[in-house]
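Batch 3, record 17
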Amino acid sequence: MAKQWTIKEISRAAGVSPGTVDRVLHNRGSVSEDKKIRVEEILSKVGYKYNLHTSAISLKKEFRIVVCIPSCAKGEYWQFIRNGIEHALVEYSDIKISCSFSTYNQFDVYSCRNAQDDILENLPDAVILGPTFEDETRDFCRQLDEKNIPYVFVDSTIEGTRAVGAFTTDQPAGGLLMAKLLSGMLPEGSEVAIFRAKRIGNQESHNSEERQKGFYSHLRDSGLNIKEGHFSMFNVGENKSELLRFISRNPRVRGIAVMNSRGHIIADILSENGISDIKVAAFDLTDNNRRCLKNGSIAFLLCQRPEMQGFSAVKAAISYLLYKNAGDSPTAMPIDIVMKENLDFYKDFI
Amino acid sequence: MAKQWTIKEISRAAGVSPGTVDRVLHNRGSVSEDKKIRVEEILSKVGYKYNLHTSAISLKKEFRIVVCIPSCAKGEYWQFIRNGIEHALVEYSDIKISCSFSTYNQFDVYSCRNAQDDILENLPDAVILGPTFEDETRDFCRQLDEKNIPYVFVDSTIEGTRAVGAFTTDQPAGGLLMAKLLSGMLPEGSEVAIFRAKRIGNQESHNSEERQKGFYSHLRDSGLNIKEGHFSMFNVGENKSELLRFISRNPRVRGIAVMNSRGHIIADILSENGISDIKVAAFDLTDNNRRCLKNGSIAFLLCQRPEMQGFSAVKAAISYLLYKNAGDSPTAMPIDIVMKENLDFYKDFI
DNA sequence: CTGTTAGCGCATTCAC
DNA sequence: GTGAATGCGCTAACAG
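Prediction for the assembled complex:
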């Protein structure tokens, strides 16, 4: 048990007042060079560690954090990130933060710009950012930089920005893992198919693309034959006929890898049509995917700890706001493999 | 954002002093019935929530927690539980707790009894318990109950005790998952083998047994042929010849499931002897297993979040010590499936 | 530049 | 039975 030093003790040891130590700690200036050095020496010698909570109670200011992420229905991916954020707000409820959400439609650039503009008008103390549109987000970050507003990424990060934290998944690694797992559980001589969502406009989902790269990088060597299919996330009606046609044209396909969280769309069609010899894999433990995992129509899911991302993002924001601690490189979340047999244990965790 | 009510505000609303509110909060008595009711009404109406940290700073008492777990080498399972505990102590360093470790040899009942006796002499405020020997631990818990010392389980729990928290894994589920995953990745017509550690004396590891039950429960239906093998965790020299003999006698075995964390012992022998067509699976992400996963000699591991167990145990102990919050039923950790491809992301997480 | 001090939310002691 | 006062570690405003 390392002893916890207090500011008062430090000040005594340095022969200065607590106020001076506080000034040194916060780089508030107005401290003579020699005293500053003396204090800093002791500080590092005893390994002084801030007390997040006691310092927070004496803080008058209320920090305003705004979260800019896609809106989504209950039980979908972004909802779990949101849960993690809200969990953190409870965990850190002694720290005076007000948090508001500025959500946008992830398929509509304009709604995203609107959300970002709102934030720039409000000038919060920090923002948590779930990026969907690369260019817009990069632009937004530049403006936040100008205004000295710190931001933290969840889900994925945008290169060339100066975030104070980022909690993401290595998407190519996810794709590769999916390729290996799925191909490993198919009978010899099978083919795999990769399924991607058709998107409105030409905006292609960045995460899906990255995953697909990883997926192909594994199967390039294995010599397995890969087919490509598409489905719609909106015009669900047409999916059935299209999928059945795909299957009849590619009778040796025994595994379908869905590059986003909509595996349940494929899985439901298959099980409704009594097709049980094709294994489906997808990403994220959404409510729908959970259901399909349970009834066996999805073989496994790869999950990226959305709650933990949200939780960590809030923690990182607070740590920066209070102590200017910026996280170094992005933190890659574990990629959890969830199957019917361990599904029940992935619940409510951060 | 739900507003956080303070004791002072509550007292104003109830027309009493802060001291009175505190007395009803802590059931300290010396409060007239009518005031008590008035305060409790407001308390529940506004959903008053303790502030763990601010209440801790004003607490004079230093809580003494002692951790009674098996000792182990660096990079082994119990070490990670310990890491989680130490992580929590840092996270909650604003709360005055002193934590000491009373470790025992997990293969020696006497050392366990000694560790427990030490604790009973010291009379700490709470103990965190990693049970190995069932009878001894049950007895120990009974004595703690008598002395009103709360305890929290990590790793596994003992039936019929009154722990204020337990963070464990569903071992049969782990065994079942291993059976499914391993058998699913073997070529048709293969056999699987289950390997268990020979133990000193007749004390059999409870966890291994539970896992084995789960393992068999899956394969009973699948009709797969299961062989049984043994290895020594101590007399490692004899393992090689024994394993090679086993393999030559059972030439169709293509998968070996090791029911504890010593998969690396089997994996190393196999790879040293150029045997690469047998997949090994085991439990826990120990340093040795990590190495084998990396070099491909282990196919996958099932892991039970030891750091999180340790972390949660400390949190539960604190929550009980401060507010008498006892966790309801044991909390089952997720069972993480770790393979070469997602290995790198399972590091340093709680 | 520097020391002093009030006050954050809470627990506790001490008068009344 | 009850309220007022004090102190925990820390920040910030203020006086010197």
